[in-house]
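BUG: 3D viewer hangs when loading the predicted structure for this chain

Environment: internal workstation, default settings.
Expected: structure renders.
Actual: progress bar stalls at 90%.

Input used:
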Amino acid sequence: MILAQKATDPQKVLNKMDDFGATVEWHPSYGPEKSKITRSIIEKVTQNKSGALNVAEFGSYAGYMTVLLGSTLRNNSKMYSVEEDSEFSDISSEIFR
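Structure tokens produced before the viewer hung:
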């Protein structure tokens, strides 16, 4: 279990999740290399967009992509994340409590 802490740096949260998945209990995540590529793609796609962005994520599991996507959005953007599976929803709620 990851102990709940106030985290203000999304990269530290992702690093902690990667470490947890590698050393405690495997879980699907992008990892540092794929996260860097994904962040770069998102930034390129959104760089010419003006105004707020609205992003929807369906199926968040532990919230790894939620953190990654959220960290690339402008302050006035909104992100909606939906997880149908109550077990997965409980996991992400525990991590981000």
